Amino acid sequence: MRLLHTSDWHLGRSFHRVGLLDAQAAFLDHLVTTVHTHRVDAVLVSGDVYDRAVPPLPAVELFDTALHRLAEAGVPTVMISGNHDSARRLGVGAGLIERAGIHLRTDPAGIGTPVVLTDAHGDVALYGLPYLEPALVREQLGAAKGGHEAVLAAAMDRVRADLAARPAGTRSVVLAHAFVAGGAPSDSERDITVGGVAAVPAGVFDGVDYVALGHLHGSQTLTPRVRYSGSPLAYSFSETDHRKTMWLVDLGPSAGPEGTVIGAERLDCPVPRPLARIRGRLDDLLADPALTPHEQSWVEATLTDPVRPAEPMARLAERFPHALNLVFDPERTDSDSGASYAQRLRDRTDQQIAEDFVAHVRGGAGLDGPERTVLYGAFDDVRVDAAEREVGR
User: Fold this and answer.
1) 61, 196, 205, 344: which could form a disulfide with 211 (CB 3.0–4.6 Å)?
2) What is the pTM of this model?
3) How far apart are CA 199 and CA 188, in angstroms?
4) What DSSP string runs through 167-192?
């Protein structure tokens, strides 16, 4: 049986204020094409279908179109809710949609009830574990304690109990949305530490043939049978070095010495525009010929000028028209030290501390004469006012 594993679509999300709906539509076109060209038997979507609980209408319309196209392809799709999704909203109409071969798994009560598909080698049971917020599902699942590991362990107990009652040789697949130990996070994932320790051991999923994970945005192999597909698009500059892909997974007959997974191939997703992180003084970035390949990329520039340049984004955009983000990290001068904040303030007057603050905010440029006069006058006024209040008591 051939499975296409994807996750973290985040429909409706933008990239530094640049809308990505067209890029997301291109990805879904690619997904449907892949289903046909690679003769996929089932599509697995491991959560974070939407970017937020109440998605914008264009994102909902795009999702609706994708469901219709997958249903028309006649290929079963199993989809779970992630921590960005509203499980209740995503699951509306799940019973009716299931008749079209789209299986939405958003209710923890259905964890032990798989979607069962059949091929020449027998049954494959696909279990959908939606994102499990410990505080909300702990009692329902009978978890002994409240962390993510405990609730996932309780959920997997239900999976293994159902699997044990099925015919010998039944192969098993679990979809889950979680932070599994060994995975490398990026900046664009929402933290899920509330309610318990975020990372859970991969051993929680022992006893099944393949685990299709969602949540982390980088494609990763934790073990040959436990993988993250990653997001199909980059959603932060921390993903600059990611290769965005889906997993094409082949399940063989019932597990032998080498296991049931007999093939796992990464299929590249369309890239709307490459990302680039560049660093240096502004004048150097504008002149460096080595940066020519990045002129049409989405760019994050870290400027190291000791003093913040005038109109840096406008000047940067002259060469890099798709520059989206500026970071300032001034080069340290000889006068800089690694002293603590308290040490740097010792024996300094209020006026000197204020001047240092202004210079820091300006990226190194200090006060001129008239500005210093105004600042010192303000300190004098405050001091006089405080003295008058003391006398009046």
Assistant:
1) 205
2) 0.82
3) 17
4) PTT-EEEEEEESEETTPPP-TTSPP-
